[in-house]
Design brief:
The chain has eight helices and two strands. The protein is mainly alpha-helical and 217 residues long.
């Protein structure tokens, strides 16, 4: 963010940023989940953790390559292709966070955590549209309600940190199917508003078959 403000961005900085994201949102949640519960199945748990980290790296690599694409449909500006890495990291440790609220019972089951990591890894490299907050513009009429909601969330993070984080993870999970429906409607609307493509006119060319024969009079 500082590099963007000072206008000193570079390709090297972009790659270092992706490396930091990979370590923070790919490696750290995978190792944390492995040490918490997946170590019970050793090889299987380690393979699941590596799968999550690998898909995170692929996700970041695809994101960097798509930044160079200039011609994209307008509706894609409001969505990510797949789950972004910060959200994936949060979902990966959601059972751990929930365990601080309800205890270590079902939340520490290795099978539940393994299935969750595999599903999140698949969603990271998928093309499923998910909401992006980068292009959100708040209308003046919605400023006050959003401020009230933000205040409630901040108070909840201070008073009941783990419960609030658990609810945030649940809300994000519920938003995934909503994002698919909204993206489909925007895509269909944009396709309907697009001007019809002009039919290609065949190129008429005159082919010479040689000198014209003169008929005898």
């Amino acid at each position: 963010r500082s590099a963007r403000m000072l206008n000193i961005t570079s390709k090297l900085g972009a790659e270092l940023d992706s490396l930091a994201d990979f370590l923070s949102f790919g490696v750290a949640p995978a190792i944390l989940t492995y040490l918490w519960t997946l170590h019970e199945v050793r090889g299987v748990g380690w393979a699941v953790a590596l799968l999550f980290a690998t898909c995170c790296a692929l996700r970041l690599a695809r994101f960097n390559t798509e930044l160079e694409a200039t011609e994209r449909p307008r509706w894609t500006q409001h969505f990510f292709a797949g789950i972004p890495t910060p959200a994936a990291a949060g979902l990966a440790v959601t059972p751990l966070i929930v365990s601080f609220v309800v205890g270590d019972g079902w939340t520490r089951d290795w099978l539940l955590n393994a299935v969750l990591l595999v599903l999140i890894a698949a969603m990271m490299v998928s093309r499923v549209p998910t909401f992006s907050i980068k292009k959100i513009r708040i209308q003046p009429d919605h400023v006050l309600p959003i401020l009230l909601v933000a205040s409630v969330v901040i108070v909840g993070l201070v008073v009941e940190t783990w419960l609030t984080l658990s609810l945030i993870g649940l809300v994000y999970l519920l938003s995934l199917p909503v994002g698919v429906v909204v993206a489909r409607r925007l895509r269909l609307r944009e396709a309907a508003e697009a001007p019809p493509a002009e039919a290609a006119v065949p190129d008429e060319r005159v082919v010479s078959l040689g000198p014209r024969q003169q008929r005898p009079s």
